[in-house]
C-alpha cells in the first residue's frame, strides 16, 4: 500500500504541531519516524490512522484521498492496523481471542481468513512464537509476550498498512533488542507497509528501510539508515542521530578553519549542506586522541566509561563538551590533557 502525505500541517488551537509535511511511503516499505518528544511524530502517525485530521494538506492511501481539511475517513474504514505503546490488551480475553477479534469485526478482513479463523489464529500464533499460549490471559504473560500478542492482533487481518507507536518503550533494554529482531522478521513474513514511530535512534537505524527525522514539527531529513548516520544534512540530525560533535568556523575547499583559533581540520565526510552552514561535524568514533605536543587542538579528559571493547570519553575543549569513542587499548586518565585529531570513519 503506497501512502502519500502532501503539504500537511496540523494545529491544535494556537499551537502548530506540524509544518508542511511531505512524505511518500512505498508499498512494503519499513519507515521509521524518528525524533525527540514533542517533535510531531505521533501526531503524524495518528493522522495516518485516522484519529486526527490535517489542518491543511492531503493524506492519500493507495492513490485515494482519505483526509484533508474538510473530511477524514474514520479509522475503521481504512485498511490500517495499529500497535500501541501500552499493549492495549483486554484482561478477560485469551491470546487466541485477541487475534480472533479483528478477524470477526474488521470489514477489511478477507473472506477466506474469516472462514478459516482457527487456521489463521494458529498461523499468527506461529508467526509471533506463542503457539503454546493461545489459551493464556494477559496477566499470565511476560512483557515481551504481551507485545507479541499486540503485534499478532495487528497482523491478523493482513492489513495493507501497519502503524506502530513506540511499541517497545515499555520493555527493558535487553528485551527491546530481541523484539527488534521479531518485528524485522514479522515485516519479512507479512510484507506489510510499516510506519514505526520511535525516539530511539538504535531502533530506527537497526530496522528501517528509510528514516524520517523530525524536529519541532518539521522533517529534517529522509534517507536510508546509512545516509542519516554517515551523511547528516542538518546540525540537528548530526547531533541527534550521529551524536556528532559540532565545530563552527568556515570552509575553504576541503579545509575547515575552526573559529577563534588557528586550527585547520581536514574534511572527513561533512556533507555540502553542513558545509554551507559553516559547520564541521565529527562523530565520537572519528576522533583520535594523541599527545598534546602532536596537535594544537587540546582538551581535558572529564570522564571515562569502560564499554568492553572501547572507552567512552567526555572532554572539555575550551568550555565545549566533546564525546569520543576509542578502543580499549587507548587509556587516558581523568584530568589528563590530550590532543584531538580527526580521522575518517
From TrEMBL:
What keyword terms does UniProt attach to this protein? ATP-binding, Nucleotide-binding, Translocase, Transport
Give yes or no: UniProt keyword Membrane. no
Give the superkingdom in one word.
Answer: Bacteria
Q: Which InterPro entries match?
A: AAA+_ATPase, ABC_SmlMolc_Importer, ABC_transporter-like_ATP-bd, ABC_transporter-like_CS, Mo/tungstate-bd_C_term_dom, P-loop_NTPase, Transp-assoc_OB_typ2
Does the entry feature the keyword Lipid metabolism, yes or no? no
A GO molecular-function descriptor: ATP binding
Annotated ABC transporter domain residues? 3-241
PANTHER family named in the record: AMINO ACID ABC TRANSPORTER, ATP-BINDING PROTEIN-RELATED, SPERMIDINE/PUTRESCINE IMPORT ATP-BINDING PROTEIN POTA
Q: What protein does this entry describe? A: ABC transporter ATP-binding protein
Q: Which organism is it from?
A: Fundicoccus culcitae
